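pinging the channel bc i need a second pair of eyes. not urgent but kinda urgent?? the chain im working w is below, pasted from the shared doc
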Amino acid sequence: MSKQRLGRGLRALIPEGEAVMSRPFTQEIRVEEITPNPFQPRRSFDDEKLQQLAESIRQHGLLEPIVVRQHESGYQLVVGERRWRASQLAGHETITAIVRDYSDREMMQLALIENLQREDLNPIEEAEGFKRLMDEFGLKQAEVADVVGRGRASIANALRLLSLDAQTRGMVERGELSVGHAKVLLGVENAALRQRLAARVVREGLSVRQLEQLVRVRPRVPRGTLRRADPEIVRIQEELQRCLGTKVSIGYRAGKGKIEIEYYSDDEFERIVEFLRNRG
């Protein structure tokens, strides 16, 4: 299966021009014969929304089949876990399914794509899904970007969220901190200070801009000069950090100095180099 087809998600599984419910390769499978996708990136399901979907299925039936693969003595979900769970809540003993033969890698890719397209994942679940594709199947950041239809910088920025300490990462996962807040906090190296700032954001309802003003990283100044940051240099430094998705330090004195760009993996190094080359 090509990455282009995977990038189109569930639609790539269905031949064009065929109606969903009249397709000869759909079949009714007992819900108890199906087990969840072990590569499902989503860890939590909203009970209220599941109940709403179950009520819709009771009234109108299942409008889109789930996709499964044969596994041991039964079946394993590929995509459609919400529909499978809601069908059980609706009291249905069987569910309409498409049976396909997928590898573990394709299982993970399709589950991740479905959730991304439906915007069902929180930022941490999304980042962990990208990381599993890289760790378990040896994909590079650029390959993950191709598979899920995202820009390479988007993948790199998502992965950086996983470098947050557990407490701050949990706040992002629960929606207490936005991705914008998280990106600012990534520039705070001291974990204790980062946690205090995160708690203050939640307690006081601070915007990303207000947090930036609190964190404001001062550029490095060569030894022997006054330790006072030029506001324009600070502005440029912050702009570079947003563009490159990583920490940038500027040392400036009378038209001379240096710019330091940090990276944390070979993939991130290649991404930054590619970004700079494309703008040369």
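so DSSP finds 13 helices and seven strands in the chain. and Residues 3-103 form a domain with the Conserved hypothetical protein from pyrococcus furiosus pfu- 392566-001, ParB domain fold (CATH 3.90.1530.30). — does that match what u expected or am i reading it wrong
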